[in-house]
């Protein structure tokens, strides 16, 4: 068994660096426990074996070429050792654990004897979330991306039973908790929640009735709103500004004094089949079929607006990406569900680490 334990430790400086990095998070033996070594004594023996490699490696650990692939390598070796010992069982780190970034939500891919290295799946969020917790995290993610105009803005998230989760009016998005999230019936009537919703959310309910979409966000992010005042769509000057599926249009909603329902119908008609709109002299409206897809669109729209502003502020000479390249990048996102892979999960881990009360 000692030889098998050392399989998790051999590999020279690459393996040693991976464990040294992990040890700074929660201790070597405990880290082996998070990777699936169930028995405490087995954790301790594995940790001790690696400590010996660390000691032998010495100064080589400070080599400038070390990187994250070292950590992947030691996890792979640990998987091999656990399989030989009959100890393999993926164990996501609980929410209260110190290393949610190491939590796994799915079984690693099969590794044949001929395969020397295979990457693991992404770390996921590290815990199961209720729809209300997803919603609260999503609101905080958007706020961090610049969708943070005080108390303004609305989010609707349709559930499988036809009801909607909605943000309350008087709580800023960066303070929202799961227990603050409101519920509305399919008609848009509020049925649950301590605080009332914004009456202007009627635009969302009207949109949901006309188009089959699960998530709608409206807010006034700084850079996109600047372009709304210019009544222009921001040009796509760089790759990051093109990494979103869906079409962006300009909507001039201020055609006269109208009632709320009429204004909603005008915006819906003007958007057509587009998924994103810059509302002239107002803000943005974005729709999507999932929270991760909408998060990607929201981020990329604001990045596009921000970068375009800076390019044009530098004066003439900026060159936009060719239309065919923009379309190709967008289609690439569509093939993976419209969301940049792993981005929602990474942002969720960040928000939970920053303030775990978001889940309360």
From TrEMBL:
Residues annotated as transmembrane: none
Residue ranges, annotated region (Disordered): 94-116
Key words of the record: Lyase, Membrane, Metal-binding, Transmembrane, Transmembrane helix
Subcellular location: Membrane
Chief localisation class: membrane
Keyword Lyase in annotation: yes
Membrane topology reported for the UniProt record: Multi-pass membrane protein
Coiled coil: none
GO terms assigned for molecular function: aldehyde-lyase activity; metal ion binding
Keyword Lyase: yes
Gene3D superfamilies: Class II aldolase/adducin N-terminal domain
Family annotation (InterPro entries): Aldolase_class_II_sugar_metab (IPR050197), Aldolase_II/adducin_N (IPR001303), Aldolase_II/adducin_N_sf (IPR036409), DoxX (IPR032808)
Class II aldolase/adducin N-terminal domain residues: 133-309
Biological processes, Gene Ontology terms: pentose catabolic process
An annotated GO cellular component: cytosol
Entry superkingdom: Bacteria
Protein's name in the database: DoxX family membrane protein
């Amino acid at each position: 068994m000692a030889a098998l334990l050392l399989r998790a430790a051999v590999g020279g400086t690459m393996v040693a660096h991976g464990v040294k990095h992990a040890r700074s998070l929660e201790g070597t033996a405990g880290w082996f426990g998070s990777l699936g070594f169930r028995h405490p004594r087995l954790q301790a023996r594995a940790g001790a074996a690696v400590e010996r490699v660390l000691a032998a490696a010495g100064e080589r650990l400070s080599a400038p070429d070390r990187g994250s692939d070292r950590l992947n390598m030691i996890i792979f070796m640990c998987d091999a050792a656990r399989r030989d010992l009959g100890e393999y069982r993926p164990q996501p780190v609980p929410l209260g654990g110190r290393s949610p970034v190491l939590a796994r939500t799915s079984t690693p891919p099969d590794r044949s004897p001929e395969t020397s290295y295979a990457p693991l799946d992404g770390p996921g969020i590290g815990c199961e979330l209720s729809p209300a917790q997803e919603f609260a995290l999503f609101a905080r993610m958007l706020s961090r991306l610049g969708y943070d105009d005080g108390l303004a803005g609305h989010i609707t998230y349709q559930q499988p039973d036809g009801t909607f989760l909605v943000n309350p009016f008087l709580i800023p998005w960066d303070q929202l908790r799961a227990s603050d999230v409101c519920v509305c019936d399919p008609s848009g009537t509020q049925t649950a929640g301590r605080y009332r919703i914004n009456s202007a959310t009627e635009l969302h309910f009207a949109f949901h009735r006309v188009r089959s979409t699960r998530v709608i966000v409206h807010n006034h992010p700084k850079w996109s709103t600047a372009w709304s005042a210019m009544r222009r769509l921001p040009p796509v000057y760089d790759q990051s500004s093109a990494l979103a599926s869906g079409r962006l249009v300009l909507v001039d909603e201020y055609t006269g004094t109208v009632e709320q329902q009429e204004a909603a119908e005008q915006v819906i008609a003007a958007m057509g089949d587009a998924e994103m709109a810059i509302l002239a002299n107002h803000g943005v409206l974005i729709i999507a079929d999932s929270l991760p897809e909408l998060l990607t669109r929201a981020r990329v729209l604001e990045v596009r607006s921000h970068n375009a502003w800076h390019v044009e502020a530098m004066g003439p000479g900026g060159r936009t990406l060719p239309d065919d390249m923009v379309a190709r990048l967008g289609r690439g996102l569509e093939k993976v569900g419209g969301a940049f892979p792993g981005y929602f999960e990474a942002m969720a881990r960040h928000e939970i680490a920053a303030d775990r009360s978001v889940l309360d």
